[in-house]
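Weekend entry, working from home. Most of the wet-lab plans are on hold until the incubator is repaired, so I used the time to fold the two sequences that have been sitting in the queue since the last round of cloning. Logging both here for the record. First:
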Amino acid sequence: DIGVAGRDVIVEMQVVVSSDDIERTVASVMAAASTLGGGVASSDVNYGNDEVTGSPGYAVLVVKVPPESVDRLLSGLDDTGTVQSINQSAQDVTEQLVNLDVRIRNARQSVANVREFMDSTENLQELVTLESELTRRQTELEQLEAQQRNLSDRVALSTVTIEVVPTASVPEPPDEDAEEEDEGIGDAFRSGWEAFTALLFGIGFVVAATLPFLVSGLLLAMIAWAIIRRRDGRVTMPAPATARSLVDETGHETEHDTEHEHDTEAAPVS
């Protein structure tokens, strides 16, 4: 209840109604708006004639009614048609109206001050300047008052835009059972193809996400392998051939000297 809430709210609605008799529905809406303390602000009506114009007809009515009468207006639409959709919006303009009220009081006081200066001055040049200033301030005052009247009127009377369309133009809701029966090989192939493309996309996404880590790991592995191979080559390096020759010759000479000493000890002393 907007009145109980104590706020100034602008209510606007858009309603779509389907009807078999557009002329009867339009007349019912106009009569209801007048009865509820409002009226039709504007209308665009075409009753239609399929045989002459080939048009089934339509109507767009912009209705103004008090906010507390909106529900009664909508409930009356069911008597002459079928409500297909309702969209509603509400705008709280309480603060704007309070602000405008303060500005209007100040503007009126400003205009009164200029008038007093004009009455007291005797200088022609000052009088011309004051008249120009009075015109400017009066223009601002009138603009503020116009804004206040516009908002107040929109709060006092809600705007309901009613679009009346032929019943034949309203599409029937889809039959779920019929849709399930129509599913065949084509639908199965489409579902399978969508699943396949989704799988490829998932694989590509995973590869793209892990590719930087794979490349970095491969480079580190190659560097580690090169370092290990270089160390193994240093440890297992064979001794030079010259060193082995010297060892062999030394061993041979040592054995020869030992045999010579045994022969010397065994010989008799003469």
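Second, folded right after the first finished:
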Amino acid sequence: EVVERQAEVMRQQVDHHLRRARAAARTPGRGERTEVADVLDERARALTRIFQDKGGDIDWDAEDGLYFQGERQDLLELAGNAMENAGKWCAGRVRVRAVPLSDERLRLTIEDDGPGLPPDRRQEVLRRGARLDESAPGSGLGLSIIDELARAYGGDLRLETAALGGLAVVLDLPRAET
């Protein structure tokens, strides 16, 4: 009964944040923009402390003047969930890169050197609450939140094999003018 109540509260929170993100993404011309480097630096500092027992840190790079067209909190959710997931599964290395694709789009790639995820299981982990490894801590919400939030902004998420050997989370997102 307690678990069911907690699960319902979590579902309501996820739904609330996704509704807010969808509404923000549908409101054109708001002019909200978030500097990508600031968000990556903030998340990398926090997560490096959390995963310090792995002996590594989060190597990140973003072009100066690269801006996400959207709310700071939403980019924190997108990048933070992906970076936290990478930190949880890595053997010691996490690499994050943000690059412009065009005047309207940017690409954020978060990769790790962990065990990765077989291609035939990648769509499964995008379902809300799906967890492939029940022995690891987590709610199974992170990747589904990233996917839904990216789509709310007209972006997309792909899961690929990382150059480091683990999983790569690739996000194509709207880019704001500098």
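Plan for Monday: verify the second prediction. Residues 129-141 have pLDDT under 50 and may be disordered.
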